[in-house]
Amino acid sequence: MPCPHCGQPLPDASAVICPRCGHDVAPSGPSVDEMADSARRGAEAAGRAVRHVLEDPRLREKLPGGSLPLLGSGLVAAAVLLPGLPLIHGTIGVPWSVVMLAACVLLGAREWRAAGRPVPEPLARLAGMAEHPAFLPVFTALTLTFAFLTLGFGLVPLMWVVAAVVLGYVQWRVFKGSPAADPELRASPGTLRLKQWVLPAVGVCAVALLLTWGSGLRGFTSLGGFTFDRKYAGEVDGRGPSSGFQADRWDYGWQPGVSTTYSASAMSGRERSGAPLVVLCLLSLALLAAVPRARAAAPAVLPLVLAGVVTLWGLLGLSMRLGPLLFLAGAVAIDVALVRASRAPPSTPDADDTPGAARD
Question: pTM value?
Answer without folding.
Answer: 0.70
